[in-house]
Structure formats: structure tokens, C-alpha cells
Amino acid sequence: MVLLDSMCSTCSSLLLDKMAPALSICSCLFPEPCTIGCVLDLLPAGKFGMVQPPYHGLVMYNDFTQPPPAHKGYPPVYTDPKTGLPRPPMYAAYPAPPGQFPHPLYSPEFTSASWHRPGYPLTSGAFAGSFPPSLSSLSRYGPPGLLSHPGLGHPGIPHHASLGAGPKSELMSPQLLSDSHHSNSSGHSTEPPQKKKNHIKKPLNAFMLFMKEQRPKVIAECTLRESSAINQILGRRWHALDRSEQAKYYEMARKEKELHLQLYPGWSARDNYAAHQKKKKRKKDGPGGGGGSSMGGAGMGGHGGLSPMSGVSGMSGGGSMGCLSMEPENKSGECPNEKKCRARYGIEQQSRWCKPCRSLHEKSDQAMVDTDQKHFLLVKTKEEVHPL
DNA sequence: TATCCTTTGAAGGAA
DNA sequence: TTCCTTCAAAGGATA
């Protein structure tokens, strides 16, 4: 078993080592999420067959320039650990025609460098000038193609706020709001009328639009249903997107925002704060308890911080992301000014970080290396016990 | 039944 | 100006 310099086409994790893979198994579908990329089973070059448990995950054939190997054991059939019954691979990642890459992330241009590139730098105003100053002539639902792009199969996508995008959709356009009682009485909506009243939801941002589009695909590929897990995958995919790809969603989000502004001129995001005051009993604080708001909830800039999953999501941007000076077990390493140095100065300007933040960052890096090394040792041990 | 989880981005308030 | 909090979607899990 080795780690491959490749990427899981489901969770988009980068793998660690380069060992000329032939057949690989991704562990991202297992109860335990990927820890350091995906754990792969490697069969001897040119040979294909059953993989060893417990890796029952998806199958990826990594050499897309070659036709599928003619071997009765390929693709392998896995046994569902719960039912004991054979089950097909979850992800149709078998070789694409030569020259094609079955997954957009699986392109030769994709490197670890692009994986670690900074976040999308554009602000909501980054597209200023790209659009007419007024969209007042545009219908909320069209014209067809207004909000479409090659990756989105919903030209003129109905606004989530207007039509209701799903079970949790509550926002209605003013017209639909007034009609909501009719629709309720006619049985078209199962939402209690009182839940819909005057609640104008925020326009979706770029990532939300991306999620909305990609979620069904991920569900179809992975058979996952839990949104937390799906969102982690989507987050990785989002980071793995090309800048141009992300730009499409930022553009859509900008249009969404403009339309929202026109529909609800006096609306403020603040309006929704009160509506959900009952919510969020207590976003979990750090283990130290009462560690202040900087650690709890959406701190660390709101995202990418020390989420509970960051320890297991490994390369997903968790790990050393965020100012680790907020680690409760850190005694001397408290960031004195509580300015998160990493967030403030970025990873490239560590010289400007305060000492505690820097040392903690080094520690966390070392911890990740240790984890990798442990895993590598485990892998090597298994290889020695079960030589390929 | 309500909230949490999990993601990123945007908005708004506090310092 | 910077940081922090909340909310947007989604649906299973949990209290």
C-alpha cells in the first residue's frame, strides 16, 4: 500500500507520494474521512485484482492514456462491510477515452502548488465594469442564459429566494410571498405559513451557488447523504477549481446580489439576524471552555479555522490553517494581541508573525509531518508484512 | 422539534 | 481598518 501523487476524484485530496500508480482505492467514502489525502492500495504494475479490506472505496484507474486493462479482476468488486453483499464501485472513474480526464480536477495542470494557492482574490467588485450598471430590465428568472455558464445546467436559474430551492427554502419573492397562502392552501407547499413571513434570505454567494450545483453530483458519485461530509468534499473541490472556474460563480453571485438588491432594496443582512436569534444555542467552544469567541463558532475569520474536522480532514486546508495561538492547550503561545497573525499577514510573511504564532505554526507543521511519517511507517510496515 | 454539523463568502457591527 | 459573528444551502444526526 502506498500513497500516490494523485488526487481523489471524490474528495479532491491530494495524495502524497509518487509511485506510478496503476490502480488506486480511495478511502474517502469510509466512515473515517481522509486524513492525509487518500489511502490507496497499489497493486503490482500491470496487475489488477482485489484490494484488501478495509478499503472498499472508489476505484480510480490512474493512467487515462491507456485503455482499461483486460483483466477479470478489474474493476474489482467490493463487499459491503455492512451487508456482506458485493457492491459496485461508487464512482465511475474508470478510464476515460485517451486524452480525456474524467474529472476536471484530474488534469495535468493541477499540481500541489495550485492546491495551495491562496483563496480567490476577487472581491464582489472584481467584476465591476463587466456588466451594465442596471439590470432593472432583467426578469428574476431570465432571460434564459443570464445566469448560465457552461458548467451550470440551469440557465436563468430561478432565484433560490424566490422559488424555494429545497426543504429549507423559505424566502419568497414579494409576489410569491403574497401568494404563499394560496399555495399553502392548495397543498403546494408544506411549509408552515408563519415560517415564510417576511423572511428574505441572503443572496447566495459564489460558494453557495457552487455547492448548489455540485451537491447532486457529489451525492451521485459518493452515495453520501450527510451534508457535513458532502460540504467538506465541496469545499475541497472549490479550492481545487481553476480561478476561471471560480470566477463564473463569483460572477453569478454578483448578479444574484444585484437582483436581490433590486427586489429588496431596503433589505439588510442584519434583518435576518434577529429572525434566527433562537438558533445557535452555543457554537462549541474550545475544550478549554469559555475560551472566548475567538475560538468558538465561526471564529478564525469565520472559516477554515480549527474546525472539529480540521484534525481529520488533513490536507483540506484544515491542519495548520488559522491562528493556532488560540489552541487552549497552548500556555506560552497565546497570541498577545489576539490578532491572528496568519490571517493577518498570510503564510508568506511569517517573519511578521508574533513569536507565539510562529512557533505554534512550526509545531503544527511538525505535527503534520509526524502524522505523515507515522502513516508512511505504517504503510511501509504493511508492505513488509505483505510484500507486493 | 430545533439545532448541530460542515463548507466559503458576504455583510454588518464592534473594537 | 481589522476582526468577529451570523447567515446563506443541505440533510442526516443528535439533544
From TrEMBL:
DNA-binding region in chain numbering: 200-268
Protein name: HMG box domain-containing protein
Subcellular location: Nucleus
GO terms under biological process: canonical Wnt signaling pathway
Record-linked SMART domains: c-clamp, HMG
Similarity remark: Belongs to the TCF/LEF family.
Keywords recorded for this protein, A-Z: Activator, DNA-binding, Nucleus, Transcription, Transcription regulation, Wnt signaling pathway
Record organism: Candidula unifasciata
Keyword Transcription regulation: yes
Major subcellular location class: nucleus
InterPro entries linked to this entry: HMG_box_dom, HMG_box_dom_sf, TCF/LEF
